[in-house]
Write a structure and sequence with these properties.
Number of strands: 27
GO biological process, one term: signal transduction
Shape: rod-shaped
Strand order of the largest sheet: 18-19-21-22-23-24-25-26
Protein name: EAL domain-containing protein
Radius of gyration: 78 Å
Largest sheet: 8 strands, mixed, barrel
Helix content: 55-70%
Bound molecules: ligand C2E, magnesium ion
Structural class: alpha+beta
CATH architecture of the largest domain: Alpha-Beta Barrel
InterPro entries: Biofilm_reg_signaling, EAL_dom, EAL_sf, GGDEF_dom, HAMP_dom, HlyB_4HB_MCP, Nucleotide_cyclase, PAS
Number of helices: 29
Oligomer: single chain
Keywords: Membrane, Transmembrane, Transmembrane helix
Length: about 950
């Protein structure tokens, strides 16, 4: 909102109202008062001055009057007398003037003198001070006029003496009149002088009185000034002195609204501030003291302050603990460490005495052992007052550590001397500080030939002198070492000594700028490492490169292939080697392998690489293969050369070889691919004609692709559990009834239909899927069997791969527990391959399984290694004769003896025998004849879904209520 311009602002109003008040305020200040006092004094002085000036002026005026009026009047009266005298003289001359001209001139002169006289009289009358003088002047004028008339009327020629006498009388009258005038004027002058003197005297009196009054007034003003200013100033200065003297509680007078009032108020607040400050400081000091006391009390150091007289001025609790064990014993003044020993009570007499006794230790710096076994470090520092402060630290732990350190050092020395490495420790100047015995041993130095203090250079010199570095100088060794340790990775430097030993030197800088070097005789290790490195890439039996080395060779061939030409990878497999190995034993097998390797080595060129991949598998990388024919030539030569008979100890053996060949770059440009394709070709060669070679063809790969698809489907099927179990009855020939069923896995592929377990089980084993799959079979079979009539067993096939997993036992236990099937009704069928892989753990696992109550059968007996030792190594409950033997029963050739032998073996070992694959009555009859316990085969039933089991049981066992 706009304010009306005519309306005064608040400030203006305030100032308008405040002006008189401000003036009053200002005048009530000390300055105002001094101003007023001086103003009054100035006014008094001014009035006095003015009055004096007026008095002087009055005196001047009187002087003027005295001179101008009185004396001038007399003078002019006298001049008039002179003029008249002249007139009489001129008249006399005229009377005697001879001629008229002279008379005329004298007449004029007379007229002029008459005028002068009249003028002088006028002035004399004018200046006269009194009426009588004026009247006398007029009388003179009249007498002169009368004289002049008489003179004129006088006839000179005829004049009588009386006429002359009249004239003279008149003249005398004039003179008399003039004298009277003179007397009057002189009298007037005197009168005037008297009057002036009177006036001056009265003025002086008045001035003296005025000065007196002015002095009085000034005194009053000074008194007032003193009363209103000096007194409060004195009071203020007294208050200031009191504050300065520290009397802060004395009252400070209350001042007015002037500066002194302000000064007093300021002093008041100054006093308050000082008081608050002091209070604060006192508090701070108190709390600092409290903290100091607290810190002292809680300090882990004992502090004792001793005064100049040797008395304890202060001792903290820790000191009391150190020396007395009781705080009271260390009260200030309680003891005098300087007191003579004789005056002290015996040690241990009382706490104070103990303190006193112990405190004597404070007399010097150093370490002290207390009676209770603790160690103290005492450090003293003198105080300004002539006493001292002793600070005592408990160094028991340090002492203990020191002792431990000493012990450790001794042990360290022992360790140094007994360590297998040589060690030299040098200081920053490369001077030897520590050397151990082993160092001297390594370099063949006499014990004590190098000692602490000699330079690193001298040490090297001694080593050279001892014959460690023939033909080399210290400089050579230093350069060699500097180069080795100068490299980024260089911490270890390997040195070969003159006698062929190898020393690994490791050097590390130490914190003090020196270094420590360790020396290890690594001759043995180096040789072992070289051997290990060789073994890692070579086959121990034939000394040929192994698969790793071959991989490197293939990689290098691939790297060169683009530039030069292609190369071939040949995978070789010795035919029937296993037979030789099994029949003639491993030593013969090994010899045969070595001989074959040697022949192979003779077949290949320097540039080619030959490797043994394992067992009876070899591979060759043939370089510079431009045409497949080059590889074919080599393959043919190998087949020929290896096919020649071998003479091993007492035997002559012939051996075939099958070869698969892949060509780079056409069959692949990676090691894996080339090896795999050569393998595929080898498989084909073995399948089609042993002792032949095959080149890889893409169609071969198609099989692999199919396998890969199957792999994928199998994974999905396992995840989805899309399998079924079929059950084939096992018929007990003694009881003439079905005694159980074998659970057989079935996979109904959504596209390919039913796939044989013989096809997918090996794949599942390869992929590790057999473990979850086998567990599923176990659960399902036990579940199913638990619903069968008591006495019926279920046989479950267990893969060798399942035995590699510790989960098997748990899985069986869980399946039994979940289904409630008693362990005795479960039979586990395993093949010989299970035992071949790892007989030790497998046997243990089989025992665990038997511990669950389950029975264990040896399946497909006769097809595998058929080593009777396997039958001995584990107490099987049952032997299952493989169907390949059963198939031939009743036919012309004589596999019957094998069946009989197995049945006999089983009987003698107390094992049940079961014949598999019984398809005909003839086979059954023969098996009965041979005393076989159980049979299984299409003759009784194919494997059927669980839903068919009741029918089967009804048929074979005649059971009405077959399934629970
Ligand atoms: P296996 O344990 O020896 O099983 C017997 C095989 O012989 C079964 O083939 C069965 O159908 C077949 N067989 C039975 N009687 C006759 C007959 O009179 N004549 C002919 N020619 N064959 C007969 P299947 O079911 O194809 O099983 C093949 C193999 O797959 C089994 O041989 C077994 O080793 C394995 N297998 C089957 N199921 C499983 C399983 O659940 N787990 C494991 N690990 N392997 C299994
Ligand atoms: Mg079986
Ligand atoms: Mg079998």
């Amino acid at each position: 909102m706009r304010r009306n311009r005519t309306e005064p602002s608040d400030g203006e109003k305030m100032s308008a109202a405040g002006t008189p008040r401000r003036v009053a305020d200002r005048l009530s200040t000390i300055r105002g008062r001094i101003f007023i006092a001086f103003l009054i004094m100035s006014l008094i002085t001014g009035a006095l001055g003015i009055y004096a000036t007026l008095g002087i002026r009055q005196a001047g005026f009187l002087v003027n009057r005295t001179y101008d009026q009185s004396l001038m009047s007399i003078n002019y009266a006298r001049a008039a007398a002179t003029d008249f005298a002249k007139m009489r003289a001129v008249f006399v001359r005229r009377t005697i003037a001879p001629d008229a001209a002279t008379r005329a001139r004298l007449d004029a002169e007379l007229a002029e003198l008459a005028i002068n006289l009249a003028e002088d009289l006028t002035i004399a009358v004018e200046r006269s001070q009194s009426d009588r003088a004026a009247r006398a002047g007029i009388a003179v004028q009249g007498a002169v006029s009368t004289w002049d008339e008489i003179r004129r009327g006088l006839d000179l020629t005829a004049a009588t003496s009386s006429a002359w006498e009249a004239l003279d009388r008149q003249a005398a009258m004039v003179d008399g009149q003039i004298d009277m005038l003179v007397n009057y004027t002189a009298g007037d002058g005197f009168t005037y002088r008297q009057t002036a003197r009177t006036i001056v005297a009265s003025e002086i009196r008045f001035y003296a009185a005025a000065t007196g009054i002015a002095l009085l007034l000034s005194a009053v003003v000074a008194w007032l000034l003193n009363r209103r200013i000096m007194r409060p100033v004195k009071a203020a200065s007294a208050a200031a002195e009191r504050i300065a003297a520290g009397r802060l509680d004395d009252a400070i007078p209350i001042g007015g609204r002037d500066e002194l009032g302000a000064l007093l108020r300021a002093m008041g607040s100054m006093r308050d501030n000082i008081r608050a400050m002091m209070a604060r400081e006192v508090n701070q000091r108190r709390s600092a003291q409290a903290m100091l006391a607290d810190a002292l009390e809680s300090s882990r150091e004992g502090v004792v302050v001793v005064d100049a007289e040797g008395r304890i001025a202060l001792a903290n609790a820790q000191a009391a603990d150190f020396f007395g064990g009781q705080a009271g014993a260390m009260e200030p003044g309680a003891m005098e460490p300087g007191a003579p020993v004789a005056a002290l009570p015996a040690r241990g007499a009382d706490p104070a005495a103990r303190v006193l006794d112990s405190a004597r230790t404070l007399a010097r710096d150093g370490e002290v052992r207390l009676a209770d076994g603790r160690w103290l470090r005492v450090s003293r520092s003198a105080t300004q007052a002539g006493g001292f402060v002793a600070v005592c630290s408990d160094i028991s732990v340090l002492k203990e550590q020191e002792a431990r350190l000493t012990a450790t050092n001794l042990r360290l020395d022992a360790a140094l001397d007994n360590m297998s490495q040589g060690l030299c420790l040098y200081d920053a100047d490369h001077r030897l500080m520590v050397v151990n015995r082993r160092y001297c041993e390594i370099y063949g130095l006499a014990p004590g030939s190098i000692a602490a203090g000699i330079s690193a250079r001298d040490v090297l010199q001694r080593c050279i002198e001892a014959g460690n570095h023939p033909g080399r100088t210290v400089a050579d060794l230093q350069v060699e070492e500097a180069e080795a340790f100068g490299r980024a990775e260089g911490r270890t430097f390997v040195q070969e000594l003159g006698d062929g030993r190898i020393v690994a030197i490791e050097k590390r800088s130490t914190a003090d700028g020196g270094f420590v070097a360790t020396y290890e005789d690594v001759t043995e290790r180096r040789h072992a490492e070289a051997r290990i490195a060789f073994m890692a890439r070579h086959d121990a039996l034939t000394n040929l490169p192994n698969r790793i080395f071959l991989g490197e060779q293939i990689d290098s061939a691939i790297a060169q292939a683009g530039r030069d030409s292609g190369f071939a990878v040949l995978c070789l497999n010795l035919d029937d080697f296993k037979l030789v190995n099994d029949t003639l034993g491993h030593p013969c097998g090994d010899e045969l392998l070595r001989a074959a390797a040697s022949r192979l080595g003779a077949c290949v060129r320097e540039v080619d690489s030959l490797a043994r991949l394992g067992g009876d598998e070899f591979a060759i990388v043939q370089r510079g293969v431009d045409r497949p024919e080059d590889a074919a030539i080599l393959a043919r030569r190998i087949i020929d050369v290896l096919g020649a008979p071998y003479t091993l100890a007492d035997h002559t053996v012939t051996l075939g070889v099958s070869i698969g060949i892949s060509l780079a770059p056409s069959d692949g440009m990676s090691c894996d691919k080339l090896l795999k394709n050569a393998d595929v070709a080898l498989d084909r060669a073995k399948a089609e004609a042993r002792g032949s070679f095959r080149f890889f063809e893409p169609e071969m790969d198609a099989r692999l692709q199919a396998r890969r698809l199957l792999e994928r489907d199998l994974r999905e099927a396992v995840a989805a559990e899309s399998f079924e179990l079929h059950y084939q009855p096992i018929y007990d020939l003694n009881a003439e009834r079905v005694c159980g069923f074998e659970a057989l896995l079935r996979w109904n592929h959504p596209e390919r239909g039913r796939i044989s377990p013989a096809e997918f089980i090996p794949l599942a084993e390869e992929l590790g899927l057999i473990i979850p799959l086998g567990e599923w079979v176990m659960r399902r079979a036990c579940q199913e069997a638990s619903r069968w009539p008591e006495g019926l067993k279920v046989a479950v096939n267990v893969s060798a791969v399942q035995f590699t997993s510790a989960r098997l036992i748990g899985a069986v236990r869980e399946a039994l527990a979940a289904s409630g099937l008693p362990g005795r009704r479960l039979e586990l069928e395993i093949t010989e391959s299970v035992l071949v892989a790892n007989p030790g753990t497998t046997t243990a696992m089989l025992h665990s399984l038997k511990g669950l109550g389950a029975r264990v059968s040896m399946d497909d007996f006769g097809t595998g290694y058929s080593s009777l030792s396997y039958l001995r190594s584990f107490p099987f409950d049952k032997i299952k004769i493989d169907q390949s033997f059963v198939r031939d029963l009743g036919q012309a050739d004589d596999s019957g003896f094998i069946v009989r032998a197995v049945i006999g073996l089983g009987a003698s070992l107390g094992m049940t025998t079961t014949a598999e694959g019984v398809e005909t009555e003839a086979q059954l009859a023969r098996l009965r004849e041979e005393g076989c316990d159980e049979v299984q085969g299409y003759l009784f039933s194919r494997p059927v879904p669980s839903s068919d089991i009741p029918g089967l049981l009804r048929r074979w066992n005649g059971e009405a209520r077959a399934i629970a």
